[in-house]
Design goal:
Helix content is 22%, strand content 8%. It has five helices and six strands, in the order αααβαββαβββ. The protein has helices spanning 2-29, 35-43, 88-91, 122-132, 167-172; strands spanning 103-105, 137-138, 146-148, 183-187, 209-213, 226-228. A six-stranded parallel β-sheet has the order 2-1-3-4-5-6, covered by helices on one side. α5 links the parallel β3 (146-148) and β4.
Length: 264
């Protein structure tokens, strides 16, 4: 019995030694090296680390990554609207102005359900009156070259008492609006507290000409929009007595050389 155990122990020992010998020999032949040695070999032009990994794509089919090969996901770009790039050549119909220059003023809107007239400031009424009493006014829209709104757009501050609401729907009801082509819109104040954004009118002017006060060069469509002075509510409709200026002296000798566009 003891001899049998000794034979089994010798057999197991021999098998273990044979496994260690042949297994260790294969480990020596295998190209497994420390990570640091692999990187140093790659720098020297040796075996690249990824060459030792199994892959479904051959190395000859690999392409190095570059800025040109990376395709970025296109983002939605805001295309400049036609109205933002308006010029007289693109957003104005001159065919209505060849014979004579006539201006049509839209009639006042009908009374609302409560029997009240649409809001209109004294300043805007002065503008409409001056146009209607001029020799350029016409009551025939088919003969008109230019159209003036009957909607008061001078003050677009939503906190103002002269602010007119629902202007987009009012414009949509105009029979000759045509996205504002051959129309002119007057405006003195835009935006509201606290920033008073210049472009904030509360409606889309479309292809209409903006006659606006305090217009910056960034917002003005050159050769299309008109810059007008800012005038107060007390500004008279007609001038008073004839002035006493005899010559154009520049610079003028005035008491006030700077004015502030104050709102409140």
């Amino acid at each position: 019995m003891q001899a049998k155990k000794r034979y089994i122990l010798v057999f197991v020992s021999c098998a273990f030694l044979a496994y260690c010998y042949f297994g260790g020999y294969r480990l020596k032949l295998a190209p497994h090296r420390p990570r640091r040695a692999q990187h140093e070999s790659a720098k020297d032009g040796g075996v690249q680390p990824y060459a030792q990994l199994p892959s479904f794509i051959g190395y000859e089919h690999r392409r190095p990554l570059s800025n040109e090969s990376i395709v970025a996901i296109p983002t939605a770009k805001r295309k400049p609207s036609v109205a933002a790039a308006c010029r007289m050549e693109t957003c104005f119909d001159f065919t209505k102005c060849y014979d004579q220059f006539l201006v049509y003023v839209y009639p006042p809107e009908p009374l609302n359900s409560l029997g009240a007239a649409p809001p209109s400031s004294a300043n805007y009424q002065k503008i409409l009156t001056a146009i209607q009493e001029s020799r350029y006014h016409t009551s025939d829209p088919a003969a008109a070259c230019l159209f003036v709104l009957g909607i008061d757009t001078l003050d677009r501050d939503s906190l103002s008492e002269d602010y007119v609401r629902n202007v987009p729907s009012r414009l949509a009801r105009l029979p000759h609006w045509n996205n504002g082509r051959n129309h002119i819109i007057f405006n003195l104040y835009s935006g509201t507290w606290p920033d008073y954004a210049e472009h904030s009118l509360g409606f889309d002017a479309g292809e209409a000409i903006l006659a606006k006060a305090s217009m910056s060069v960034l917002q003005m469509r050159h050769g299309f929009d008109v810059s007008i002075p800012l005038f107060h509510k007390q500004f008279p409709l007609r001038a008073g007595a004839t002035g006493s200026v005899q010559s154009n002296n520049f610079p003028a000798n005035k008491k006030y050389l700077l004015a502030f566009k104050g709102k409140r």
